[in-house]
Design goal:
Blueprint lengths: L2 H19 L2 H13 L14 H17 L5 H22 L7 H34 L4 H21 L1 H29 L11
Helix pairs in contact: 1-2, 1-4, 1-5, 1-6, 1-7, 2-3, 2-6, 4-5, 5-6, 5-7, 6-7
Length: about 200
């Protein structure tokens, strides 16, 4: 494949990963970039850069970001976000991939884009669960802010500096994995040991 095709793959994968953090942030960044002429969309997806789409993505992004700062609502969004993140990952990747047949583009979008978005969303959900376990939910707003910032930064880098986006994605996955691992260990260590009755000893 030519270099342009590889570059579009990296852009699509980076945007798909960002959908795992927040569903609408990457779509909003794509819409702004497309309107500014910094992103070439695949045939049939020019509507992403339309004024109507820009307004819709901006409104959806605002609602989504605020929702994650409300107790209990953030967990509901996590449950609803799994299929939404997968669908958004497919959309942003298939609309970014260029220089390939429609069949190959959709196949890669479903497997790589949707799969990666679902994987990242699962990791963020585990991080929020670990935060709830160790802080009683008090640390969840900080997790939500970090996720929103990661989605925005990863989306911008995926379009502006695609290679740097891959490096950031690897770093975010590593940090999330370590946070979840340490929090799970702390939660297990702090849980009381169950004492069996004398008759069962």
């Amino acid at each position: 494949m030519p270099p342009e095709t590889w570059l579009s793959l990296i852009v699509g994968v980076g945007l798909a990963a960002a959908c795992g953090f927040r569903v609408f942030v990457p779509l909003l960044v794509m819409s702004v970039a497309a309107r500014a002429g910094h992103l070439d969309l695949a045939p049939g997806f020019a509507w992403i850069g339309s004024p109507a789409a820009l307004v819709a993505f901006a409104a959806a992004t605002a609602v989504e970001l605020l929702g994650y700062f409300i107790p209990y609502v953030d967990h509901l969004l996590d449950l609803l976000g799994a299929p939404a993140a997968t669908a958004a990952g497919i959309l942003v990747s298939v609309s970014s991939f260029a220089g390939m047949s429609p069949f190959l583009r959709w196949t890669l979008a479903i497997i790589a884009g949707g799969g990666l978005a679902a994987l990242v969303h699962g990791a963020t959900g585990a991080a929020r669960a670990a935060s709830t376990l160790t802080t009683g939910g008090l640390g969840n707003p900080a997790v939500a802010a970090a996720e929103a910032g990661g989605a925005a930064l990863l989306s911008v880098l995926a379009i502006a500096v695609p290679v740097a986006a891959l490096g950031l994605l690897a770093a975010l996955v590593l940090v999330t994995w370590r946070f979840v691992s340490r929090s799970t260990k702390r939660g297990s260590a702090s849980s009381p040991t169950r004492i069996r009755p004398a008759s069962m000893r």
